[in-house]
Amino acid sequence: MNIHLSxxxxxxxxxxxxxxxTTPEQxxxxxxxxxxxxxxxxxRDPVLELDEATVQQTVDELVxxxxxxxxxxxxxxxxxxxxxxxxxxxxxxxxTDQELGIICVLxxxxxxxxxxxxxxxxxxxxxxxxxQVEATIAQLMQxxxxxxxxxxxxxxxxxxxxxxxxxxxxxxxxxxxxxPATATDAARIEALEQRLEQLQQQVExxxxxxxxxxxxx
Length: 217
Known about the structure:
Layout: H1 7-22, E1 29-30, H2 31-38, H3 52-64, E2 68-70, E3 80-83, H4 97-109, H5 114-120, H6 130-142, E4 149-151, E5 163-165, H7 183-212
Antiparallel strand pairs: 1-3, 2-3, 4-5
Helix pairs in contact: 1-2, 1-4, 5-6
């Protein structure tokens, strides 16, 4: 994979993918509509405040790289833009609806857990459960033309790992290069954590009992 996107480029591509699915009647997008989409305060992380000149410059760079195309209709005074990043006849990068939903949301919101991805892709595609999200992430990590996604180390106190897209460069060295844990693995980990907590409580009770024993000369 040789596509590398800046933050602004990721936002533009993500917005074009999102609006093509959620509001097809308004797609392709005008510069004004695309700027508003980039600066949305919902479903975006980080929240940006890009002006039209910056969005236009970003679009122009993407047009040069053939990742966006000007689709201005005949006789129209307002330029409109369409993505050629994936799932078009112009390129080889093809995703299923579920893969595209995950990639789109990762482009728009950064690293997320499978649970977050299931909720936030609901307008783009459908997942029956979190396990199906994890299976789709595994596909994106294992594809011959990828990988497109990497797993980040689980944060302290968190029960789920987060996943990031790889269109803005490689994952950090400490990122785990493995597929998502299965439901069986998750259950095993949870059981071990509960057992560890029980053992810690037993040790604390024993220490209390020992402390209560009369001191012998």
